[in-house]
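cron nightly-structures :: item 1 of 1
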Amino acid sequence: MNIFVCIKQVPSTNKVQVDEQTGVLKRNGVASKMNPYDLYALETALRLRTAHGGTVMVGTMGPPQAQAVVKEAYMMGADDGYVFSDRRLGGADVLATSYTLSQAIRSVGDFDLILCGKQTTDGDTAQVGPAIAEYLGIPHAAWVSHIERNGDGIDVEQQLQDVIETVHMPFPCLVTVEQDIFMPRLPSLKTAKEIADKSIHIQGLDTFLDTDANHYGLTGSATAVERIFPPQNDVEKETWTGADSAEKLHDTLKKWKFI
């Protein structure tokens, strides 16, 4: 079973500035990490490889420093990794990002299964995985909490709002996994030493089947940010001391009609 896992480097803090002109996160100088939900997808891939053989390849779209999350995936046991990095890919919305990743996946090989985390912590749309599958023209399932191989396909359990639905999908297919599917393993120090010199492939738009730059990045995005601004801090604070503090609290709560 040959598996491709989509991973992403995201800010490790929620205190990130946004470019007011483009609506894009300013990532320079901000500490980053692998998207936590992608760790569950990677763990799922590694366990399927152990059970059924095959390979696990990871790929991320981002600047050159995104190699850090590929190295982390190597330390967990991934076989091969790609960074799809090109200035022309920057500023993409959900549709352009999904199209980019579908083209990137096509450019590196054929896979039985594509795995994604259910969402990213910086975008939170939970739409990229299913959209990749639509562009690739393959079946997909989201919110998956259990996977089993069944012949030339897989059986999955989807956690829907009120029910758990079981679905069979033939290969190739795409799945986005929930965080309770498996507990991700910790990166191995032994493996870290073994992969210290392991190469990471870096590819740009020119390696894709569709090399029209108008289909990618800000130009290829169907949506645009109209206005962006930080939330206003309108918290008022008062400090009371003395024996009459309880009475002041009572009067204030009454004034605000909390009591």
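cron nightly-structures :: done
Helices lie at 36-52, 67-76, 94-108, 128-136, 189-194, 245-255.
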